[in-house]
TrEMBL record:
GO terms for biological process: lipid metabolic process; photoinhibition. The chain crosses the membrane at residues 139-157, 163-183, 289-311. GO terms for molecular function: omega-6 fatty acid desaturase activity; protein domain specific binding. The lineage of its organism: Eukaryota, Viridiplantae, Streptophyta, Embryophyta, Marchantiophyta. Belongs to the fatty acid desaturase type 1 family. It comes from the Eukaryota. InterPro entries: FA_desaturase_dom (IPR005804), Fatty_acid_desaturase (IPR012171). Keywords: Membrane, Transmembrane, Transmembrane helix. This is Fatty acid desaturase domain-containing protein. Residues 161-414 form the Fatty acid desaturase domain.
């Protein structure tokens, strides 16, 4: 029938969206096995999970494997709320499904699955040789841009009235992210042909961020080698349910906040846990780690007291802490958007494929131009995962080549609230069938942290 259909779900009368569907009435107790056939979709699209807007929740309703997956419709404090479930991986072969999910998740395009016979070497070999060339002028130009923009940011902070300080802090945090990108190029050995100079520049660039260069480099190399590999990836890994069950209640609450409302600053936790513990590094790495730790502690011992002596504790907050929090906003946002989406799976080592992980499992996201300039195009991230030897100033050239040769496999978006809402409210637990599940998946009571976040975050794309 056409139009709005009333149905009984968990004892509630709800209005399903306008659609062309045929269904049989069944007892409430059999809802979980109720079949909804969509005459308006291809069989593969029905199988995969077409989604339609729900009038009673404002959230998308998903039909999965030709079954009415309750989306999962559940009682929540006297009402019903919905969790949109990702579809089975094979469904991404269907163009209609990809387009539907792209709309639902806040993407411009969800790429076709990368064929198993495509290797990462195939992708690298398709790139122009120029993208790997180190250009000293362009490298030092990034240093000049960051030095000037960060100096300007500090000047703006010094001159801004209190009501304009948040804008000055935001600009300073974005400029400070440029320091990280310079260190990032140095760590990947694509800043200069002089490797000692690279390590010196990388260490100095990361000092104001209190980011120890060598420890970060060692762990970051592992992220590139094992991107989206279950257990092994060191960046933005989903929570494993078995581990969660053993967490004490305070840690569970901390995790809900950290992967929910505070996720744009979650890199602070990663920074604190991974980069200051010598035990996490091999004996052959520890001398270099100690050098980096000495550099950041030296910065803290010298520069922080000078700021406090000259401007007081409020000055330390204005000139260092708030820009540092702004930097972590971008550090966290870039990383989670690059690697977290309901359709991007984490794979066990036996099923992991490097081309699928680096080309098809990484996201290109467009941000405002001023952000991309100050952050040296770090958001152009797919070519960086295809090869870490591409300098930041050549990433756009490499991306254009990937679009030309492999564009149908590319995931891309423009930063938007729906994208952030999807990540922050859905992508928590590792789920073998659905890739991700939210923290309150399977519970009768909605999370007191994630639930309100679903309600207050905008759903605009």
């Amino acid at each position: 029938m056409q139009g709005t259909m009333a149905a009984s779900v968990c004892g509630y009368r709800v209005a399903l969206p306008k659609a062309s569907i045929n269904c049989r009435a069944q007892p409430k107790a059999k809802l979980s096995s109720q079949v909804v056939r969509s005459a308006g979709l291809k069989s593969s699209a029905r199988r995969a999970a077409g989604s339609l807007g729900s009038k009673f929740t404002g959230e998308p309703v998903v039909y999965q494997h030709a079954r009415f997956d309750p989306l999962e419709l559940k009682r929540r404090n006297g009402g019903i709320y919905a969790i949109a479930a990702p579809v089975a991986p094979y469904a991404l072969e269907d163009a209609e499904v990809r387009a539907r999910l792209a709309e639902e998740y806040g993407f411009q395009q969800i790429g076709e699955p990368v064929p198993e016979n495509v290797t990462l070497k195939n992708v690298i070999d398709s790139l122009p040789k120029e993208v790997f060339e180190i250009n000293n002028f362009k490298a030092w130009r990034t240093v000049a841009i960051t030095a000037v923009s960060y100096t300007l940011a500090l000047f703006l902070i010094s001159k801004s009235p209190w009501y304009l300080l948040p804008f000055a802090w935001a600009y300073a945090g974005t400029a400070a992210t440029g320091l990280f990108v310079i260190g990032h190029d140095c760590a990947h050995k694509c800043f200069s042909k002089n490797k000692l100079l690279e390590d010196i520049v990388g260490t100095i660039a990361m000092m104001p961020l209190i980011y120890p260069y060598e420890p970060w480099r060692f762990k970051h190399d592992r992220h590139h080698a094992k991107t989206n590999m279950l257990v092994e990836d060191t960046a933005w890994h989903p929570v494993m349910r078995k581990e969660w069950e053993n967490y004490p209640k305070p840690l569970k609450s901390f995790m809900e906040w950290g992967m929910g409302p505070l996720r744009p600053w979650a890199s602070i936790g990663h920074w604190a846990l991974w980069h200051f513990d010598l035990k996490k590094y091999r004996p052959s790495e520890q001398n270099r780690v100690k050098t980096s730790l000495a550099a950041v502690f030296g910065f803290m011992a010298v520069v922080w007291p000078l700021i406090i002596w000259k401007f007081g504790v409020v000055g330390w907050v204005n000139y260092w802490l708030m820009p540092w929090l702004g930097y972590h906003f971008w550090m966290s946002t870039f990383t989670m958007v690059h690697h977290t989406a309901p359709h991007i799976p984490f794979k066990d080592v036996k099923d992991w494929n490097s081309a699928a992980a680096q080309l098809g499992g990484t996201v290109h996201c467009d941000y405002p131009k001023w952000v991309e300039v100050l952050c040296h195009d770090i958001s152009v991230h797919i070519p960086h995962h295809v090869s870490q030897k591409i300098p930041s100033y050549n990433l756009r050239m490499a991306h254009d080549s990937i679009e030309k040769n492999w564009g149908k496999h590319v995931n891309k978006c423009t930063w938007n609230w729906r994208l952030m809402k999807t990540i922050m409210t859905q992508c928590h637990f590792y789920d073998e069938e659905k890739n991700y599940a939210p923290f309150d998946d399977g519970l009768e009571v909605e999370s007191k942290v994630i639930g309100p976040l679903r309600k207050v975050m905008p759903n605009t794309a």
